[in-house]
User: Which sequence fits this backbone?
């Protein structure tokens, strides 16, 4: 099987599908290659910040995605032994997207894929990329294989690697990942039933290790239990009983639901938390976006939002390059030039957040309330809140490039 397209996007996650929709609406032929045959798989990122919500709204995908099931969240709180150290009310930000949104990633991707399918320039292929096609040292497409071994060749004028933190495209292109061990924690994720919505995101330090908690559709609380880096192996060897005891200590408000929900280690998913920023995000006719280019920790819910803004920034650069017939590394370097400062600022701020909110020990316990007061009572707090909420506010969709008509209704 063969396919010819203008752009081959490898990875059907938020970054890849958003870029695909932007390109399809601009009359660009785009093929998405996604290795998973179903959306019924493990996800971690669910929280959308206002900047990401705005992108989806401007794309016409927000209403449909929310209707599939979601929770609006009004605030972020850092709580220590029952006392609020920080409380950021999103309703005080400029509207209309002045809230957080807990949206299952499967709902987001289903909506984006449905919107993409409205345009005749879009194709979706299931398969794992195992080779980059090169001619005269320039990337000209990918070769994939599906689960039964059937190969598929996608010839393209440009390949976009949007295939996540362990990007196959990045590896095949010989681009280093730029891993940054700037976080001292890993996160064990699990869900507990919760009929009464929390309506907020909290980091709770009640005892033991801090826990991130927020509403997750349908009728659950998603909890991220932070652990010292590398501590999970020893804890897991002690068995699920020890884990349940530790979780009850860390989240006493959910203690009565722990035994029924955490029956085995399979009910807990460990996230290796690390930062990364590849030294270079581009080659001739190839560019990386989202986690393939830069990886973020879960604190501050930045991953999806940064990925969506990546797609928005790359869109006009790529459209212009294709129309000029120049997808060289020098041309695609414009994306790196525009986005790298934003990404580096986010990674730096996340490292500070992690140390302030999640670190343990006497020094951290002494410093944390003082830093919290500075954040809450000075303009610094408002500045950081806007940065976390909106990312780079100058990133806006180039709607003037939308020239394509939808498929005729059947």
Assistant:
């Amino acid at each position: 099987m063969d396919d010819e397209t203008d752009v081959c996007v490898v990875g059907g996650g938020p970054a890849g599908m958003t870029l695909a929709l932007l390109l399809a609406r601009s009359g660009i032929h785009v093929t998405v290659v996604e290795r998973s045959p179903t959306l019924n798989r493990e996800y971690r990122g669910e929280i959308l910040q206002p900047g990401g919500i705005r992108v989806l709204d401007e794309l016409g995908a927000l209403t449909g995605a929310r209707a599939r099931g979601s929770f609006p969240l009004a605030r972020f709180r850092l709580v220590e032994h029952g006392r609020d150290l920080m409380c950021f009310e999103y309703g005080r930000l400029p509207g209309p997207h002045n809230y957080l949104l807990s949206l299952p990633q499967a709902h987001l991707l289903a909506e984006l894929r449905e919107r993409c399918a409205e345009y005749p320039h879009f194709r979706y292929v299931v398969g794992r990329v195992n080779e980059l096609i090169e001619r005269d040292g320039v990337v000209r497409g990918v070769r994939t294989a599906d689960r039964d071994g059937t190969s598929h060749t996608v010839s393209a004028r440009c390949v976009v690697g949007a295939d996540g933190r362990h990007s196959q495209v990045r590896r095949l292109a010989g681009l280093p990942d730029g891993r940054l061990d700037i976080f001292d924690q890993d996160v064990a994720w699990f869900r507990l039933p919760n009929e009464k919505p929390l309506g907020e995101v909290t980091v709770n330090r009640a005892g033991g290790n801090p826990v991130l908690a927020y509403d997750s559709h349908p009728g659950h609380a998603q909890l991220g239990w932070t652990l010292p880096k590398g501590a999970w192996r020893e804890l897991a060897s002690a068995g699920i009983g020890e884990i349940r005891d530790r979780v009850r200590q860390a989240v006493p408000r959910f203690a009565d639901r722990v035994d029924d929900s955490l029956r085995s280690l399979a009910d807990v998913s460990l996230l290796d938390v690390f930062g990364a920023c590849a030294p270079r995000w581009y080659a001739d006719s190839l560019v990386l976006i989202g986690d393939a280019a830069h990886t973020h920790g879960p604190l501050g819910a930045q991953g999806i939002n940064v990925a969506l803004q990546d797609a928005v920034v790359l869109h006009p650069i790529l459209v212009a390059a294709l129309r000029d017939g120049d997808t060289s590394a020098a041309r695609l370097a414009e994306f790196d030039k525009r986005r790298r400062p934003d990404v580096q600022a986010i990674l730096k701020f996340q490292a500070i957040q992690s140390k302030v909110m999640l670190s343990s020990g006497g020094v951290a316990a002494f410093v944390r309330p003082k830093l919290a007061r500075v954040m809450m009572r000075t303009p610094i707090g408002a500045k950081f809140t806007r940065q976390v909420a909106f990312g780079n506010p100058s990133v806006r969709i180039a709607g003037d490039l939308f020239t394509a008509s939808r498929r005729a209704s059947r």
